């Protein structure tokens, strides 16, 4: 039974006033490796049906991985029972009717069905290059596809199919050096595994054994993965309701300059490097939204409920992020502009210190290097940082060529490397 037929089973059996049916199919295959050898190859296929039923403002949600008609009907009955026993949800909005969706091209059949031998060949190449350089490599190569279908009692039907490929590699040398690199695309053919492997290997052997220097405010060159992981703290928090209720760092800041004039940040489901979902989380048609334009905060994210309260158009959440403002230079071009500073490959364990101030903390990882007179001179032991986008976005000196990079959420972002002055490192580590 296909997705439309399965949704029809639930819609015809529903007693609820409103019903939404989400069917999420996920095929994923992963080849993992460590110590320059494959140690795991797994594949999984999952399909989840989620139903949201509503009697007036009383809402219930249930899901199941039993995709038989009987399993879906059972989940429907659970959702309706939950709705009947729930308190009214004042922010619930009835599901929207049919939409005109943008035509997003995000699926590649070859990537969706890439055989394990192709992933193994990529790992074998990485292992050989690592062994030749005297380093150990570990990581994973993941491929697959996601198929999302939505139908509701208002007559809306929508579907989206996307493929994905992600290769990530971490390296370490006997001297204590480390490196990291990753690539992501909806087409596996876009991933140049040899280039990614050589980049991570090169970091592990660059600069010899890491040395320790004192932390403090420093000029940094943030590679796209590092810069993107910090920009996530903006995309997570651009919530209009929270700002209007004075529970946000963005309260009163729409129309104000929050970054250097060269920086802009937008959501764009039709960007060819990062094709997005044609629909938002509740089924509305996705569209381009300019959140930051020429350094000025232009827009906050409005749900349908809050948009109705405020008399504006809903935007959906901040996804499919594209950051503009780079001049085309790559990482090495930016390094040449730094007299004395630090090159950061990426951050990890990033988190809020003070959400109202957007103060964040985290640690460097995957290769940290001293820059002197425009050249990388030595590897460094890692630092912890404490800083805020409300400060460092105004201290951006230059941005480079935008690339598609993987982040924690929204998972992918088109982001440049950046030079930032007086970035605040607060303490060091022994590794």
Describe this structure in words.
This protein has 431 residues and is of the alpha+beta class. It folds into two domains: 3-203, PmbA/TldD fold; 210-431, no CATH class. 22% of the residues lie in helices and 39% in strands. The chain contains ten helices and 19 strands. The strands form three sheets. It has a six-stranded antiparallel sheet. It is globular.
Give a brief rundown of this model:
Helix 1 crosses helix 2.
Number of E-state strands: 19
Low-confidence stretches: none
Mean pLDDT: 95
Overall shape: it is: globular
* Residue share in helix: 10-25%
Strand order of the largest sheet: 3-2-1-4-5-6
What percentage of amino acids are in beta strands? 35-45%
SSE topology string: HEEEHHHEEEHEHHEEEHEHEEEEHEEEE
Distance between the termini: 54 Å
Number of H- or I-type helical stretches: 10
Query: Helices and strands: which structural class?
Result: alpha+beta
Largest sheet: 6 strands, antiparallel
The total tally of domains equals 2
Radius of gyration: 24 Å
Defining key terms:
10 helices, single chain, 6-stranded antiparallel beta sheet, 2 domains
SSE layout:
Elements: H1 3-13, E1 18-34, E2 37-55, E3 58-64, H2 69-85, H3 109-112, H4 116-133, E4 135-152, E5 157-173, E6 178-185, H5 193-205, E7 217-222, H6 224-235, H7 240-244, E8 264-267, E9 289-293, E10 296-297, H8 304-310, E11 321-324, H9 331-335, E12 340-354, E13 359-372, E14 375-379, E15 383-387, H10 389-392, E16 396-399, E17 403-406, E18 412-415, E19 418-428
Parallel strand pairs: 7-12, 11-18
Antiparallel strand pairs: 1-2, 1-4, 2-3, 4-5, 5-6, 7-19, 8-9, 8-11, 9-10, 12-13, 13-14, 13-15, 15-19, 16-19, 17-18
